[in-house]
Design a protein that fits this description.
The termini are far apart. The chain is an alpha/beta fold and 178 residues long. The longest helix has 13 residues, at 27-39. The chain contains five helices and nine strands.
């Protein structure tokens, strides 16, 4: 298993696959290794996970609770809660145009409770629903950065949505944006 055997300091960013903490039993033993990677200066991007059945209770370095909350409308409005945040500005300046052409949905399993260490970056909501801010969370941990995203990159990338690529590049490059 590469995660267990490789020197993680060789990487700047590690991204977990969707539902990794729901489907990869080894993450129960390796989660602390990932948090140590972040504490040492790496960036960990955790894509959406369900809110139950995960191999550990808390997937972040600080408390957070994942919910069933989701934004099903692919054209749901996006509000930049922190417009000057590095995730929205480096290396790509993210604008409303980057959320045009999204397919199927905006995101799923947003966090609905989270420690104040987490910064919210954007919010979205379906018609008639309250805004949800837990779809993209950013936290400094040690010398590194932890990011949780419920945004549906797994749908946008195969569909060739340019804004999905641009925003994901910003997440991958988060440490350089400091």
């Amino acid at each position: 298993d590469d995660l267990e055997k490789n020197d993680l300091s060789a990487f700047q960013t590690i991204i977990t696959g969707v539902r990794a903490y729901s489907t990869r039993q080894r993450l129960k033993q390796l989660h602390q290794r990932l948090l140590d990677f972040v504490a040492a200066g790496g960036t960990l991007v955790v894509q959406y996970n369900g809110n139950r059945g995960n191999v550990i209770d808390n997937i972040g370095p600080y408390p957070m609770r994942l919910s069933f909350e989701r934004v099903d409308e692919e054209d749901a409005p996006i509000t930049f809660v922190a417009p000057d945040h590095p995730l929205l500005n480096r290396p790509n300046r993210i604008t409303q145009q980057d959320f045009e052409g999204w397919v199927h949905d905006r995101g799923i399993y947003f966090a609905d409770q989270y420690d104040p260490h987490y910064q919210t970056v954007l919010s979205s909501h379906d018609t008639g629903k309250a805004p949800l801010e837990g779809g993209l969370l950013y936290a400094k941990y040690g010398k590194g950065i932890f990011i949780y995203t419920g945004l549906s990159f797994f749908r946008q990338l195969p569909a060739g949505v340019p804004g999905g690529y641009r925003l994901l590049v910003n997440l991958i490059s988060a440490k350089q944006g400091e």
